[in-house]
Design brief:
- It is a single chain.
- The chain is an alpha+beta fold.
- Among the domains are: 50 residues, SH3 type barrels (Roll); 87 residues, no CATH class; 226 residues, 2-Layer Sandwich (Nucleotidyltransferase, domain 5).
- The chain is 31% helix and 14% strand.
- Helix 3 packs across helix 5, helix 7 packs across helix 8 and helix 7 crosses helix 9.
C-alpha cells in the first residue's frame, strides 16, 4: 500500500527561514550545521536540531506541512608450503594486473585476465576455475579473493598455509596471563545463559585489568581470543543454536539488498521479544517486546520502544513520533553523551553560544519517506496507516514469508542482542538451549529502566563504526551512523524539518470524556487543573460527540492527559495524585491495584482514589527495591527481586530514572527507600558482568 506524499519543508541552500524572529537566508550546509546570513549581512552557524527547536522557526515560502615481505617468517615454513605460496603469488598477480610477474613484466595478457575487458570479480572467478582444473582442489572465487587480500596485507607470508606453521600447544604462543583470564571468564559464565563468544572479550579485558593493572598485559586480537575461548571451553559451553531449515518458499528467490542514498529514504520497522527478563509492574517476570525503526542509508536506529505486552497499533503510531522528533538527553545520563561534549568541533563551538544545546543527545533524526514493514496486524492497521498518510509517509509491506526483505532491521536485532542484552542481568539467551538455570534470580530491571538503559546505549551505538557504512572517498574506513548521516546530508543538500512537540501530542491516542465538577474521571482516576474551571459541566463545541471533550493520552504513562480546549491547543492536565506516584505506570497496572483493593471500602470516592494511589506507590517501591513481605510475595508472584547493580565508574550513576519516552525530561527516580520497614525478606545480591561504562565506551569514538 502507499500513502499520499505530503512534501515536508526542506532547509536548503538559498532558502529563507525565520529564526529568533529574524529572517535569515541559508548559504551553506556543513554536516549538521546550517550557515545563515541575516538582513544586516551578519552570519551565524546554527546546529540543525537547535534551529528546528526554535518556537518561531519556519521555512519562508514553503507550504505548511500536514503535520615489505616477511622473509624471516617465510623461511620458517616447510618447503612445500613455501613452494605453494610462491605459486599463489603468480596467480594473484595475474588476477590483479593480468601478468604473473606483476606490472611492467614481460609477457602477454591472457584474455580472461585482461583488466580492460573483465571486472575483478570475473577475473577472480576465472582464476578459481583454472586452479581447480590444475589440481589445487576445489577453489572458489572467495578463496581467490581471500588470498589476494592476504597478499596485499602480509606479502608472501599471507599466502602460506598457516596450518603448517601452527604450534603444537593448545594455546600456542599466547601469554599465560591471557590464558588464565580466559579460563576465569569461562568459569564465571558457567550456569548462565549462553551469549556470543565476542561477549566474553570485555570480561577477559576486565579480569586482566583487575589482576595486573590497566595496560600491563597486551590484549591479543579478537581472532586470538576467539581461538583461545574455542580451545579452552568445555563441551557444551560454546553457543550452539538449533539448525534452522530454510522454508520451501525461499528456494530460488533472489536476494536484493536494500539501498538508500539519503537519510530517511527508506526506514525498516519490525518487532521482536527482547532477550532479557524484565520485572513488570504487576510483579511478574517476562520478556518485553521491542519495536525499532532503522534507517537504511545511515544504519541509525531512529526509534526503539519497549512494551510490556504485545505491541498495539497505538504503540506503532507512537513509534512514528519517536522517529521524527529530536532526542533530548536524560537528566541521569553522563555529560559525555550530550551534544556539547561530542568531539566534533562544530558542536563544541556552538555549545558556547547557548547552554540549552547541552540538553540534546548525540543522535541523528531523520524524517522517514518510506517505511518497510511486515504484514503484522499492527503495521497494516487503520491507526498506523492513517498516521503515515497524514504525515506523508509511504508504507511498503514486505513480501510474505520473506525476512530478507527487511534484512537490515533483522540484523540490527542481533546487534542489540550481542552488544547490549547479553551484558544485562536476566539475559535469557536467544533460545531455551542457551538459557541458564537461574536466569529468573538475576532479573532486576523494570521495563522502564530497561528503556532508559537502551536509550543511553543507543547514543553509544551511533558513535561505533559500522562495517556496512563506507564513504566513496574512504572505502577502507568504516563510518559511524552519525558520520554517515553527516556525509549524506551534505550530498542530499537539504534537511527535512522534524516534528514538533505539538505534533507528538497529536499522534497520541484519543478518547472523549466529559468535564465534571471534580474534573475528568477515567477509570477511577481524576485529572484536574484550575484552568478547567470555566468548562466544568459544559459541553464541548464539537458536534456529534454528545458534549464530550477530546482527550489525548500516553498509554505507557497515564499520570497526565492532554485536553483540546476551545482555543484549539492541547493542554496538559495532571492526575491529582501525580506528585505522590513518582514512577510511570500504565492502565494495566492500575487495574491490578484496583483488583487487590476490591475488598476495601468504596463509600468515599476521593478517599478510595487516594488509597489506590498510595497502594500503587508502595507496591512500586517494594517491587523495585526487593522489600516485599511474604504476604505480598504470595499476592504478587515472583515480585521480590534483587536491588539494582551499582556502577563501576564513581561518577556515573547507573540507577537511572525510569522515564517514559514522552516524559524523558522529568526526574522519575523513586524517593529514598531508607525509611521502609524491615521485614524477614533478604535481598539477593545482584549479579551481572557490570561491563557497561559510558566513559570507556566514549574513548573508542
Amino acid at each position: 500500500m502507499s500513502a499520499w506524499r505530503n512534501a515536508r519543508p526542506a532547509v536548503k541552500v538559498g532558502a529563507h527561514v525565520r529564526f529568533r524572529g529574524v529572517k535569515w537566508q541559508v548559504v551553506a550546509l556543513s554536516g549538521q550545521t546550517v550557515h545563515l546570513v541575516g538582513p544586516d549581512g551578519g552570519g551565524q552557524a546554527v546546529l540543525a536540531g537547535y534551529l528546528f527547536a526554535d518556537p518561531g522557526f519556519t521555512v519562508i515560502g514553503a507550504d505548511a506541512p500536514q503535520a615489505a615481505p616477511q622473509w624471516g617468517l617465510f623461511e620458517t615454513a616447510p618447503a612445500a608450503a613455501r613452494e605453494k605460496a610462491l605459486a599463489w603469488q603468480g596467480h594473484v598477480r595475474e588476477v590483479e594486473c593480468g601478468l604473473a610477474g606483476g606490472p611492467g613484466s614481460g609477457g602477454v595478457i591472457r584474455p580472461q585476465y585482461d583488466p580492460e575487458q573483465h571486472t575483478l570479480a570475473e577475473r577472480e572467478q576465472a582464476k578459481a576455475e583454472e586452479l581447480t582444473a590444475l589440481g589445487f582442489g576445489r577453489v572458489s572465487r572467495t578463496t581467490v579473493q581471500r588470498m589476494r587480500l592476504a597478499y596485499r596485507k602480509q606479502g608472501l607470508w599471507g599466502l602460506v598455509d598457516h596450518r603448517t606453521t601452527r604450534a603444537s600447544s593448545l594455546t600456542g604462543r599466547s601469554d599465560e596471563r591471557v590464558v588464565t583470564a580466559v579460563r576465569e571468564a569461562l568459569r564465571r559464565r558457567r550456569g548462565r545463559s549462553k551469549g556470543t563468544i565476542n561477549g566474553l572479550f570485555p570480561l577477559i579485558n576486565q579480569i586482566l585489568e583487575d589482576r595486573y593493572g590497566p595496560g600491563t598485559v597486551p590484549v591479543p586480537s579478537q581472532a586470538t581470543l576467539y581461538r583461545l575461548v574455542t580451545t579452552l571451553a568445555r563441551p557444551g559451553e560454546l553457543p550452539a543454536g538449533p539448525v534452522r531449515q530454510m522454508p520451501a518458499s525461499f528456494e530460488g528467490r533472489a536476494f536484493t539488498p536494500a539501498t538508500a542514498l539519503r537519510p530517511g529514504e527508506q526506514v525498516q520497522v519490525d518487532t521482536t521479544r527482547l532477550d532479557v527478563l524484565a520485572l513488570f509492574d504487576d510483579g511478574t517476570l517476562a520478556r518485553p517486546e521491542l519495536t525499532i525503526a532503522v534507517d537504511v542509508a545511515t544504519r541509525a536506529i531512529l526509534a526503539a520502544v519497549l512494551c510490556p505486552s504485545a505491541t498495539k497499533a497505538v504503540d506503532a503510531a507512537l513509534l512514528l513520533a519517536e522517529m521524527a522528533v529530536p532526542h533530548p538527553a536524560r537528566p541521569t545520563w553522563p555529560d559525555i553523551l550530550r551534544m556539547d561534549h561530542a568531539r566534533a568541533l562544530p558542536h563544541q563551538r556552538l555549545a558556547t553560544l547557548d547552554e540549552r544545546l547541552a540538553e540534546a543527545a548525540a543522535r541523528p533524526v531523520a524524517w522517514p519517506e518510506t517505511i518497510v514493514v511486515d504484514r503484522g496486524k499492527v503495521f497494516v492497521s487503520a491507526a498506523f496507516t492513517a498516521a503515515c498518510e497524514t504525515l506523508g509517509i509511504s508504507v511498503q509491506p514486505a513480501p510474505p514469508h520473506a525476512p530478507t526483505a527487511k534484512g537490515i532491521v533483522e540484523r540490527t536485532f542481533g546487534t542489540i542482542n550481542a552488544l547490549f542484552c547479553q551484558h544485562l542481568p536476566g539475559y535469557t539467551g536467544s533460545d531455551v538451549t542457551r538459557r541458564g538455570p537461574d536466569t529468573e534470580k538475576d532479573a532486576c530491571y523494570s521495563v522502564a529502566q530497561l528503556q532508559d538503559l537502551l536509550d543511553e546505549w543507543l547514543v553509544h551505538y551511533h558513535h561505533r563504526p559500522h562495517e556496512g557504512l563506507r564513504h566513496p572517498m574512504m572505502p577502507r574506513k568504516a563510518l559511524t551512523p552519525n558520520q554517515m548521516w553527516t556525509a549524506l546530508v551534505a550530498v542530499a543538500g537539504y534537511v527535512p524539518v522534524p516534528l514538533t512537540g505539538r505534533d507528538y501530542l497529536e499522534l497520541l491516542p484519543v478518547r472523549w470524556q466529559a468535564i465534571t465538577a471534580s474534573g475528568i474521571r477515567i477509570h477511577h482516576r481524576t485529572y484536574d487543573a484550575d484552568l478547567l474551571a470555566p468548562y466544568r459541566g459544559q459541553p464541548s463545541p464539537i458536534a456529534g460527540r454528545g458534549g464530550k471533550w477530546e482527550i489525548h493520552y500516553n498509554p505507557h504513562d497515564v499520570r497526565q492527559i492532554w485536553i483540546r480546549l476551545p482555543d484549539g491547543e492541547l493542554t496538559e492536565i495532571p492526575w491529582i495524585h501525580r506528585d505522590h506516584v513518582h514512577q510511570p505506570f500504565n492502565d494495566h497496572t492500575w487495574q491490578h491495584i484496583r483488583t487487590l483493593a476490591l475488598q476495601g471500602s468504596h463509600g468515599d470516592a476521593e478517599q478510595h482514589e487516594a488509597d489506590l494511589a498510595d497502594a500503587l506507590d508502595q507496591l512500586m517501591r517494594r517491587v523495585h527495591s526487593g522489600h516485599a513481605t511474604k504476604t505480598e510475595q504470595a499476592l504478587l508472584a515472583r515480585a521480590a527481586q534483587s536491588p539494582l547493580p551499582t556502577a563501576r565508574h564513581p561518577d556515573h550513576d547507573t540507577e537511572t530514572a525510569a522515564a517514559s519516552p514522552a516524559q524523558c525530561g522529568e526526574d522519575d527516580s523513586i524517593d529514598n527507600l531508607d525509611d521502609l520497614p524491615d521485614d524477614d525478606s533478604r535481598p539477593v545480591t545482584a549479579t551481572g558482568f557490570g561491563l557497561y561504562d559510558a566513559y570507556e565506551e566514549a574513548d573508542k569514538w
